[in-house]
TrEMBL record:
Keywords: Lipid metabolism, Lyase. Gene3D superfamilies: 2-enoyl-CoA Hydratase, Chain A, domain 1, Lyase 2-enoyl-coa Hydratase, Chain A, domain 2. GO terms for biological process: fatty acid beta-oxidation. CDD domains: crotonase-like. Belongs to the enoyl-CoA hydratase/isomerase family. The keyword Lyase applies. This is enoyl-CoA hydratase. GO terms for molecular function: enoyl-CoA hydratase activity. The keyword Lipid metabolism applies. It comes from Actinocorallia herbida. It catalyses: a (3S)-3-hydroxyacyl-CoA = a (2E)-enoyl-CoA + H2O; a 4-saturated-(3S)-3-hydroxyacyl-CoA = a (3E)-enoyl-CoA + H2O.
């Protein structure tokens, strides 16, 4: 249900692989996603791509067929499993690029929002339709969408539950890397390889600074940035980067 592929030893690709169910998230799939993310997070991967198999959908959210037979107690027992899965993607220390195609609804949009960058192709449809079935987005949708497009635009999307086609998603800023027809995965991999060519210590520290500084006042956020700078300045990666620049060669990053 969750695939893991390595590209060149530095880019890990995590794949949602339940195409017959449009990659809907079952309890078992959510558990496996959290496990694979933990494996990748502890690895020496420099960057990560989150993709999906099949032609029709990136992910249509929670498996509502599974939930149809659940009691309230069952749903509450499933909740921490789902929170752990979405949290595992959001918490990956490496920069993560989503490769989105087809339908990305509910939890599918939330998985994409949990990544640092989103690549998508024409025909992709985003949406947070949870209010139409008596729920609110529970995988970070209300918080991550607001941080990405602003509170008012997020309110429009969340409260109406409407679907957003590719062109509007680009205009809103949901999509960072517009791809050509059928090219979301290639664009995401290209972006991840570009990230992976840089110092892994620096890109991880930059990700932390971007994430942790965003909700703070400017003075506090500058302290977050300073801590990230100090982490990189004392690293072997910084010494290798400067040496490689002066010797006019490609850096061989120690990653420490």
């Amino acid at each position: 249900m969750i695939g893991l592929t390595w590209h060149g030893g530095t880019v890990a690709e995590i794949t949602l692989d339940r195409p017959k169910a449009l990659n809907a998230l079952s309890t078992a799939m959510a558990e496996e996603l959290a496990r694979v993310c933990a494996e990748v997070g502890a690895s020496r991967a420099h960057a990560v791509v989150l993709s999906a198999s099949g032609e029709k959908a990136f992910c249509v959210g929670a498996d509502l067929k599974e939930r149809n037979g659940m009691s309230d107690a069952d749903l509450l027992r499933q909740r921490p499993v789902f929170r752990a899965a979405f949290g595992a993607v959001l918490g990956l220390p490496q920069p993560v690029v989503a490769a989105v195609h087809g339908f990305a609804l509910g939890g599918g949009t939330e998985l994409a929002l949990s990544c640092d960058l989103i690549a998508a192709q024409p025909g992709t449809v985003f949406g947070l339709p949870e209010v139409s079935i008596g729920l609110v987005p529970g995988g970070g949708g209300t918080q991550l969408m607001a941080r990405r497009v602003g509170p008012a635009k997020a309110a429009d999307l969340v409260l109406t539950g409407r679907k957003v086609a590719f062109e509007e998603a680009v205009a809103l800023g949901i999509v960072d890397r517009p791809a050509p027809e059928g090219g979301a995965r290639d664009t995401a991999l290209e972006t991840a390889r570009a990230i992976a060519a840089n110092s892994p210590i620096a890109t991880r520290a930059a990700k932390r600074a971007l994430r942790n500084g965003a909700p703070l006042d400017l003075v506090s956020a500058m302290d977050v940035e300073d801590n990230a700078w100090r982490t990189t300045a004392m690293s072997a990666d910084r010494r290798e980067g400067i040496a490689a620049f002066n010797e006019k060669r490609t850096p061989d990053w120690p990653g420490v």
